[in-house]
Purinergic receptor P2X 3 (Zonotrichia albicollis), 292 residues
Amino acid sequence: GLAVEVQEGGVDADRCPRGVLTGVEGSQGADSSGAEVPWVLTGLGVPGVLTGRCVPYNATLRTCEIQGWCPPEVDTIDVPVMLEAENFTLLIKNSIRFPLFGFEKTNLPPPGSGVELGRCRFHPQLQPLCPILRLGDVARLAGQDFPALAATGGVLGIKIGWVCDLDRAWERCLPRYSFTRLDSLARTPAPGYNFRHARYYRWPDGSERRTLIKAFGIRFDVLVYGSAGKFGIVPTLINTVAAFTSIGVGTVLCDIILLNFLKGAEHYKARKFEEVSEAGQSTDSGTFSLGL
Protein backbone atom coordinates (compact mmCIF):
# COMPACT_ATOMS: atom_id res chain seq x y z
CA GLY A 1 0.00 0.00 0.00
CA LEU A 2 1.04 3.61 -0.50
CA ALA A 3 0.40 6.78 1.42
CA VAL A 4 1.36 10.20 0.14
CA GLU A 5 2.37 13.57 1.56
CA VAL A 6 1.75 16.54 -0.73
CA GLN A 7 3.70 19.81 -0.67
CA GLU A 8 3.15 22.71 -3.04
CA GLY A 9 5.54 25.52 -3.97
CA GLY A 10 7.08 27.51 -6.76
CA VAL A 11 10.20 29.29 -7.95
CA ASP A 12 10.15 32.66 -6.17
CA ALA A 13 11.44 35.49 -8.33
CA ASP A 14 12.69 37.24 -5.15
CA ARG A 15 14.57 34.10 -4.13
CA CYS A 16 14.16 32.13 -0.96
CA PRO A 17 15.49 33.48 2.35
CA ARG A 18 14.35 30.41 4.32
CA GLY A 19 15.96 27.88 2.08
CA VAL A 20 18.60 26.68 4.54
CA LEU A 21 16.82 24.57 7.14
CA THR A 22 19.65 22.22 8.05
CA GLY A 23 22.22 24.79 9.19
CA VAL A 24 23.89 25.36 12.53
CA GLU A 25 25.18 28.62 13.87
CA GLY A 26 28.64 29.42 12.51
CA SER A 27 31.30 32.08 12.81
CA GLN A 28 31.20 35.64 11.56
CA GLY A 29 30.81 36.17 7.85
CA ALA A 30 30.35 39.08 5.48
CA ASP A 31 27.42 39.72 3.19
CA SER A 32 27.68 41.25 -0.27
CA SER A 33 27.81 44.75 1.26
CA GLY A 34 30.82 43.83 3.37
CA ALA A 35 29.00 44.00 6.72
CA GLU A 36 30.04 41.49 9.38
CA VAL A 37 27.03 39.36 10.38
CA PRO A 38 26.41 36.02 12.11
CA TRP A 39 25.68 33.36 9.52
CA VAL A 40 24.26 29.87 9.33
CA LEU A 41 26.53 27.09 8.07
CA THR A 42 24.73 25.41 5.20
CA GLY A 43 26.59 22.10 4.89
CA LEU A 44 25.43 19.58 2.31
CA GLY A 45 21.97 19.08 0.89
CA VAL A 46 21.15 22.73 0.14
CA PRO A 47 17.87 22.64 -1.85
CA GLY A 48 18.90 25.20 -4.45
CA VAL A 49 21.69 27.42 -5.79
CA LEU A 50 23.52 29.71 -3.36
CA THR A 51 23.27 33.34 -4.50
CA GLY A 52 26.05 34.70 -2.28
CA ARG A 53 23.74 37.04 -0.35
CA CYS A 54 23.03 37.03 3.39
CA VAL A 55 19.38 37.62 4.28
CA PRO A 56 17.46 37.61 7.61
CA TYR A 57 16.87 34.12 8.97
CA ASN A 58 15.24 35.18 12.25
CA ALA A 59 15.46 38.11 14.65
CA THR A 60 19.13 37.46 15.51
CA LEU A 61 20.62 35.44 12.64
CA ARG A 62 21.08 35.89 8.95
CA THR A 63 21.38 33.02 6.49
CA CYS A 64 22.78 32.30 3.07
CA GLU A 65 20.18 32.91 0.41
CA ILE A 66 19.41 30.27 -2.19
CA GLN A 67 17.51 30.29 -5.44
CA GLY A 68 15.23 27.27 -5.74
CA TRP A 69 11.79 25.91 -5.00
CA CYS A 70 10.10 27.79 -2.15
CA PRO A 71 9.25 26.67 0.38
CA PRO A 72 11.86 23.89 0.34
CA GLU A 73 10.84 20.31 1.05
CA VAL A 74 10.11 19.53 4.69
CA ASP A 75 11.38 16.00 5.17
CA THR A 76 10.11 15.52 8.72
CA ILE A 77 6.82 13.88 9.61
CA ASP A 78 5.33 14.18 13.08
CA VAL A 79 2.81 11.38 12.66
CA PRO A 80 3.49 8.48 10.24
CA VAL A 81 0.90 8.49 7.50
CA MET A 82 0.46 4.71 7.43
CA LEU A 83 -0.28 3.92 11.09
CA GLU A 84 -3.87 2.94 10.30
CA ALA A 85 -2.60 0.24 7.95
CA GLU A 86 -1.47 -1.84 10.92
CA ASN A 87 -4.90 -3.48 11.11
CA PHE A 88 -5.25 -4.02 7.37
CA THR A 89 -5.31 -7.65 6.22
CA LEU A 90 -3.70 -9.42 3.30
CA LEU A 91 -5.12 -12.54 1.62
CA ILE A 92 -2.55 -14.74 -0.12
CA LYS A 93 -3.64 -17.36 -2.66
CA ASN A 94 -0.86 -19.74 -3.61
CA SER A 95 -0.63 -23.14 -5.25
CA ILE A 96 2.19 -25.64 -5.63
CA ARG A 97 2.60 -28.33 -8.27
CA PHE A 98 5.03 -31.23 -8.57
CA PRO A 99 4.44 -32.52 -12.14
CA LEU A 100 6.75 -35.52 -11.71
CA PHE A 101 4.37 -36.96 -9.12
CA GLY A 102 1.16 -35.47 -10.53
CA PHE A 103 0.62 -33.57 -7.28
CA GLU A 104 -1.02 -30.14 -6.93
CA LYS A 105 -2.34 -28.27 -3.92
CA THR A 106 -3.30 -24.74 -2.80
CA ASN A 107 -2.71 -22.99 0.49
CA LEU A 108 -6.43 -22.38 1.02
CA PRO A 109 -7.80 -24.57 3.82
CA PRO A 110 -9.98 -27.38 2.42
CA PRO A 111 -13.59 -27.82 3.55
CA GLY A 112 -13.84 -29.65 6.83
CA SER A 113 -10.41 -28.56 8.04
CA GLY A 114 -11.92 -26.46 10.84
CA VAL A 115 -10.56 -23.18 9.45
CA GLU A 116 -13.19 -20.59 8.53
CA LEU A 117 -11.64 -18.57 5.73
CA GLY A 118 -13.82 -15.52 6.32
CA ARG A 119 -13.01 -15.20 10.03
CA CYS A 120 -9.55 -16.62 10.59
CA ARG A 121 -6.37 -14.59 11.04
CA PHE A 122 -2.90 -16.09 10.69
CA HIS A 123 -1.14 -17.04 13.92
CA PRO A 124 2.03 -19.19 13.90
CA GLN A 125 0.70 -21.48 16.66
CA LEU A 126 -3.09 -21.08 16.75
CA GLN A 127 -3.90 -20.59 13.04
CA PRO A 128 -0.79 -21.60 11.03
CA LEU A 129 -2.81 -22.48 7.91
CA CYS A 130 -4.93 -19.33 7.65
CA PRO A 131 -3.95 -17.38 4.49
CA ILE A 132 -5.28 -14.03 5.83
CA LEU A 133 -2.48 -12.05 7.47
CA ARG A 134 -2.73 -8.86 9.49
CA LEU A 135 -0.07 -6.35 8.42
CA GLY A 136 0.90 -5.53 11.99
CA ASP A 137 1.47 -9.23 12.68
CA VAL A 138 3.59 -9.60 9.53
CA ALA A 139 5.84 -6.74 10.64
CA ARG A 140 6.10 -8.15 14.17
CA LEU A 141 6.95 -11.66 12.96
CA ALA A 142 9.62 -10.12 10.70
CA GLY A 143 11.18 -8.48 13.77
CA GLN A 144 10.05 -4.95 12.89
CA ASP A 145 8.23 -2.20 14.79
CA PHE A 146 5.24 -1.16 12.71
CA PRO A 147 5.21 2.57 13.66
CA ALA A 148 8.90 2.82 12.73
CA LEU A 149 8.22 0.92 9.52
CA ALA A 150 5.29 3.20 8.70
CA ALA A 151 7.46 6.30 9.07
CA THR A 152 9.82 5.45 6.19
CA GLY A 153 8.26 2.45 4.46
CA GLY A 154 9.97 -0.86 3.84
CA VAL A 155 10.02 -4.15 1.95
CA LEU A 156 8.88 -7.28 3.77
CA GLY A 157 9.27 -10.83 2.49
CA ILE A 158 6.63 -13.49 3.09
CA LYS A 159 8.17 -16.91 2.47
CA ILE A 160 5.92 -19.91 1.86
CA GLY A 161 7.68 -23.26 2.03
CA TRP A 162 6.30 -26.56 0.79
CA VAL A 163 8.47 -29.46 1.94
CA CYS A 164 6.40 -32.60 1.41
CA ASP A 165 6.80 -36.35 1.83
CA LEU A 166 4.34 -37.65 -0.75
CA ASP A 167 4.39 -41.17 0.70
CA ARG A 168 2.23 -39.75 3.46
CA ALA A 169 -1.38 -38.60 3.13
CA TRP A 170 -2.31 -35.71 0.83
CA GLU A 171 -3.46 -33.68 3.84
CA ARG A 172 0.01 -33.86 5.41
CA CYS A 173 1.58 -31.65 2.73
CA LEU A 174 1.14 -28.23 4.33
CA PRO A 175 2.66 -24.77 3.73
CA ARG A 176 4.95 -23.15 6.27
CA TYR A 177 5.07 -19.34 6.56
CA SER A 178 8.07 -17.26 7.60
CA PHE A 179 8.77 -13.53 7.44
CA THR A 180 11.78 -11.26 7.00
CA ARG A 181 12.69 -7.74 5.97
CA LEU A 182 14.34 -7.47 2.57
CA ASP A 183 15.52 -3.86 2.25
CA SER A 184 18.70 -2.68 3.91
CA LEU A 185 18.51 -1.40 7.49
CA ALA A 186 21.88 0.35 7.27
CA ARG A 187 22.07 4.13 7.36
CA THR A 188 21.46 5.34 3.82
CA PRO A 189 20.55 8.74 2.36
CA ALA A 190 16.97 7.56 1.78
CA PRO A 191 16.13 4.70 4.16
CA GLY A 192 12.97 2.68 3.75
CA TYR A 193 10.67 2.32 0.77
CA ASN A 194 9.62 5.77 -0.42
CA PHE A 195 10.09 7.99 -3.43
CA ARG A 196 9.30 11.50 -4.66
CA HIS A 197 7.73 12.71 -7.86
CA ALA A 198 6.42 16.12 -8.87
CA ARG A 199 3.85 17.63 -11.18
CA TYR A 200 4.96 20.90 -12.77
CA TYR A 201 2.78 23.66 -14.16
CA ARG A 202 2.90 27.39 -14.89
CA TRP A 203 0.57 30.03 -13.45
CA PRO A 204 -1.00 32.77 -15.60
CA ASP A 205 1.55 35.28 -14.30
CA GLY A 206 4.35 33.14 -15.74
CA SER A 207 5.69 31.79 -12.44
CA GLU A 208 6.56 28.10 -12.31
CA ARG A 209 4.80 25.93 -9.76
CA ARG A 210 4.97 22.33 -8.73
CA THR A 211 3.16 19.84 -6.54
CA LEU A 212 5.74 17.62 -4.82
CA ILE A 213 4.45 14.22 -3.80
CA LYS A 214 6.40 11.98 -1.46
CA ALA A 215 4.94 8.48 -1.43
CA PHE A 216 5.57 6.00 1.36
CA GLY A 217 4.81 2.33 0.99
CA ILE A 218 5.15 -1.11 2.51
CA ARG A 219 5.83 -3.63 -0.22
CA PHE A 220 5.28 -7.34 0.29
CA ASP A 221 7.26 -9.85 -1.75
CA VAL A 222 5.81 -13.37 -1.60
CA LEU A 223 8.58 -15.96 -2.08
CA VAL A 224 7.49 -19.56 -2.70
CA TYR A 225 9.80 -22.57 -2.62
CA GLY A 226 9.23 -26.29 -2.27
CA SER A 227 10.57 -29.81 -2.57
CA ALA A 228 8.87 -33.20 -2.57
CA GLY A 229 9.91 -36.84 -2.56
CA LYS A 230 8.29 -40.21 -3.00
CA PHE A 231 9.54 -43.81 -2.78
CA GLY A 232 9.97 -45.67 -6.09
CA ILE A 233 11.27 -49.24 -6.50
CA VAL A 234 12.93 -48.66 -9.88
CA PRO A 235 15.03 -45.62 -8.82
CA THR A 236 15.92 -47.45 -5.61
CA LEU A 237 17.26 -50.50 -7.48
CA ILE A 238 19.17 -48.36 -9.96
CA ASN A 239 20.80 -46.33 -7.21
CA THR A 240 21.60 -49.43 -5.17
CA VAL A 241 23.27 -51.24 -8.10
CA ALA A 242 25.18 -48.08 -9.02
CA ALA A 243 26.42 -47.73 -5.46
CA PHE A 244 27.56 -51.35 -5.27
CA THR A 245 29.29 -51.10 -8.63
CA SER A 246 31.16 -47.96 -7.66
CA ILE A 247 32.80 -49.68 -4.67
CA GLY A 248 33.44 -53.08 -6.35
CA VAL A 249 30.83 -55.00 -4.38
CA GLY A 250 29.25 -56.29 -7.61
CA THR A 251 32.27 -58.38 -8.52
CA VAL A 252 32.44 -59.94 -5.07
CA LEU A 253 28.75 -60.85 -5.12
CA CYS A 254 29.01 -62.40 -8.58
CA ASP A 255 31.97 -64.55 -7.46
CA ILE A 256 30.11 -65.73 -4.38
CA ILE A 257 27.08 -66.76 -6.44
CA LEU A 258 29.09 -68.48 -9.21
CA LEU A 259 31.40 -70.33 -6.80
CA ASN A 260 28.75 -71.59 -4.40
CA PHE A 261 25.20 -71.62 -5.77
CA LEU A 262 25.21 -72.36 -9.52
CA LYS A 263 25.63 -75.61 -11.43
CA GLY A 264 29.13 -75.97 -12.74
CA ALA A 265 30.58 -74.12 -9.75
CA GLU A 266 33.48 -76.61 -9.56
CA HIS A 267 34.36 -75.99 -13.21
CA TYR A 268 34.27 -72.22 -12.67
CA LYS A 269 36.37 -72.60 -9.55
CA ALA A 270 38.93 -74.71 -11.48
CA ARG A 271 39.21 -72.09 -14.17
CA LYS A 272 39.44 -69.19 -11.75
CA PHE A 273 41.97 -70.67 -9.36
CA GLU A 274 45.02 -72.85 -10.06
CA GLU A 275 46.54 -75.26 -7.61
CA VAL A 276 50.33 -75.11 -7.41
CA SER A 277 52.36 -78.10 -6.33
CA GLU A 278 55.11 -77.92 -3.76
CA ALA A 279 57.72 -77.93 -6.54
CA GLY A 280 56.21 -74.75 -7.90
CA GLN A 281 55.17 -76.38 -11.20
CA SER A 282 51.96 -75.13 -12.66
CA THR A 283 49.54 -77.63 -14.16
CA ASP A 284 47.54 -75.05 -16.05
CA SER A 285 47.88 -71.65 -17.54
CA GLY A 286 45.98 -68.52 -16.65
CA THR A 287 45.47 -66.79 -13.37
CA PHE A 288 46.48 -68.49 -10.17
CA SER A 289 46.77 -67.85 -6.48
CA LEU A 290 49.33 -69.09 -4.01
CA GLY A 291 48.12 -70.92 -0.96
CA LEU A 292 50.41 -70.42 2.01
